[in-house]
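Take one record.
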Amino acid sequence: MKNVILITMDAVRPDHLSCYGYDKIETKAIDEIAKEGLVFRNVIATSCLTPVAHASILSGKNPDKTGVRDPFSKVQTRLISNILKENGYTTAGFTGIDFLSRRVGFDTGFDVFDEPTDETAWKKKTYKSDGRVLDSVWGNWWIPKMLDFIEKNKSIPFFIWGHYFNVHFHAEKQMLKDGKLKKGVLSDNAYYDAKMVYMDENLFKPMIKTLKDNGLRDDTTIVITSDHGESFQYDYPQHRTLYDSDLKIPLIIKDKDLPHHYINKTARSIDIVPTLIKLLDIKTNEKFDGKDLCWNAIFDFDNVIAYSEELFPHRGPGILQSIRTDDVKVIYNRSKDTVEVYNLRNDPEEKHNILDETYESMKNTLTTKEEHKIKERLKRLGYIE
């Protein structure tokens, strides 16, 4: 049986990893994994909100099936941790924010579960909505615990989920204070690139070394992804919209039975669990919204539709829902009753809403068809030639 490590990096954009072509920094350890695996260039998250996106990643299901729609929700479905535990795996989860805690139900199926506490956190924040109050804690340095878990469980099949939070905005303040970042070095966008380099050196590099030292490198399937992206258009980095900057995420899958390959077609975060189930040759009756990306499907899978949502309007421009294909993105703002349509082939940065011209084109097409039908009828009656 293969071991499995799933790392979800919080708020990490694929276009800031060197294996995706970024040249301002090098993420060498992640590159090492990417060189042996599948690298998906066009992966869409189900939400720009951490708990919603993670419930989908860990279950292979869209938010309407997971039960997690906002920060006050709880997991209402089985996760991959449940499936793997039932199939003989020892399971461990490590999280960096308590949006992904026991309180929310993310500990289901885990033998070991490590989450932030008041002692480990570097930030506390209170959320309020419709009379509800939620106190949250941010920050938990769990990497040494994960490495220790690998050492202690090297002789049995294990599944590890690690949620790395220190690329998220506000982490830089504590990291500067602790001397983990150098003031003024790679400081753009709240030290975003500096935090990426630190993550690569202090999470992925020691993880790879520990696997090699314990003879587990080849027999461990590694998945690297993010919950959502990050937008730099605000005064401070944020993720509040359903534009690609907030929804596009990296996805790297390294498995000894898979080739190294770059894949451009649209994939979704809900495809991760079905893909792992296939790679591990596990039988389950669980119904997934995602699809297996393995084998021949990898090189010729159909154009899929990616659904995303942000139903917690206190964060951004309103209650948002979107659907996306390789070619088109449609965003519906339910709060404002507005629709945006983008041609992603011609406008990948989603600058030009083509809703009006799309409507006019459709209307003209319908009008032309009706005129043609009328003319054909008049010809048959002999009124025109």
